């Protein structure tokens, strides 16, 4: 009986020692923020130091890189922190766009090309643990068309030099037709994003009837025949008549001539006595020979400012045979004109 009592006391003492020891050990720490530990050990004795490191793709920035198990069974505090690694900012791609929110570890770039361009290479890239992008940027190459269709009796001129039998997206071709053919449809076409050309115009034969002559004028070609598209005929006027409008007319694609010019009549200065200002020269009307002012030319007559007792010149313009004399003009009497010309508005002090 004494032996059993002694054994019970010994076992109780051993159990108490084991439980006390377990309360002083540190459990494996639960670390946040991408901090990691090596090994799989679950319990640590006081005084044990654990080195800290960052998970792949993360970089340490502060704090001691270890923690210590204290006698109280708790780990020491640390300010150790891990931040994600950063990849370099991506360069823009020609004729395309890239979309991304950040450049840190595991960030993604998505690539797209502008309309009319095809993406060659990866559509996306991921920032890797080593701080580099997973793939180089792609290239956006233009969509290709064949050569532009050429209409019969026509020709095409590209906006820039073309080599080989392919053309790039956006290239413009300009069409012209060989006379006497005229262009019907849009004069230009483009290589589209679908790899085809926009609509090709047609070249149709066009002629115009003989042009009409103009009153008081003549033309350079009096042939009574049909004229080809883009053929031209010149006009001029007889005598002192002035041509108003284009000197030449052209046979248009609608089979009609462009607007004909007209011949405008000259004017005479309708005063009997007085002095005029013509082409910056003062001339007595009796010496104005011939009394002709051409269409759209100007002449000035002299009027009297009776309040200020001074003269002033007022201009008037010849319009197709009509030259209006300003109302302020008063024709002098024959006596004043012949005996007292120095008293006329043109000769006294000018206002």
Automatic annotation (TrEMBL):
Domain (Sushi): residue spans on this chain: 24-84, 85-142, 143-205, 206-265
Principal place of residence: secreted
Organism of origin: Austrofundulus limnaeus (Annual killifish)
Keyword Nucleus on entry: no
Compartments where found: Secreted
Disulfide bonds: 26-69, 113-140, 208-251
Gene that specifies this protein: LOC106528479
GO function terms (MF aspect): heparin binding
Gene Ontology CC terms: extracellular region
Signal peptide as annotated in the record: 1-21
PANTHER family in the record: BETA-2-GLYCOPROTEIN 1, COMPLEMENT COMPONENT-RELATED SUSHI DOMAIN-CONTAINING
Taxonomic lineage: Eukaryota, Metazoa, Chordata, Craniata, Vertebrata
UniProt protein name: Beta-2-glycoprotein 1
rRNA processing found in the keyword field: no
Keyword entries, A-Z: Disulfide bond, Glycoprotein, Heparin-binding, Repeat, Secreted, Signal, Sushi
Protein task: Binds to various kinds of negatively charged substances such as heparin, phospholipids, and dextran sulfate. May prevent activation of the intrinsic blood coagulation cascade by binding to phospholipids on the surface of damaged cells.
Domain of life: Eukaryota
